[in-house]
TrEMBL record:
Protein name: Flagellar secretion chaperone FliS
Gene3D superfamilies: Flagellar protein FliS
InterPro entries: FliS, FliS_sf
One BP term from GO: bacterial-type flagellum-dependent cell motility
Length: 138
């Protein structure tokens, strides 16, 4: 095996280990990061000659939104999970519209929603870490 292949295999193993050992909240943040990255690529390439790139990246972002929807536990999550589901359904509709119209404003709107949701999850994760690090003095 060449050095380049060994290096690539090592990086892939590291990524796999990182994903399998992170908390569910951190994994959700990573999904938001991926969707935002794909949407930014779509936005940057939103020109007539690059519509195939736009389409592919909007579809990838949509797949991530679908995964976020499937990860919701509507029974245990109650109102919060149902509200998130409603937001995700709205975002999926707007993604479809943005893709059909190749509308940069809609893409920017979706990116803003995703960034806000990501920030909320980052705050939740931060508070969970703070709670875990707090110990009761004896």
């Amino acid at each position: 095996m060449s050095l380049a292949r060994k290096s690539t295999a090592t990086v892939e193993q590291y990524k796999s280990n990182e994903i399998s050992t992170v908390s569910q909240g951190k994994l959700i943040v990573m999904l938001y990061d991926g969707a935002i990255r794909f949407l930014n690529i779509a936005l940057e390439n939103n020109t007539p000659r690059k519509y195939d790139v736009v389409n592919n990246h909007i579809l990838k972002a949509g797949e991530i939104i679908t995964e976020l929807m499937l990860a919701l536990n509507l029974e245990q999550g109650g109102e919060v999970a149902n509200n998130l589901l409603g937001i995700y359904v709205y975002i999926k509709k707007r993604l479809l519209e943005a893709n059909m119209k190749k509308d940069s404003e809609i893409l920017q709107e979706i990116i803003k929603y995703m960034e806000d949701l990501k920030s909320a999850w980052e705050e939740i994760e931060k508070k969970k870490i703070e709670c875990r690090s707090y110990t009761i003095p004896r």
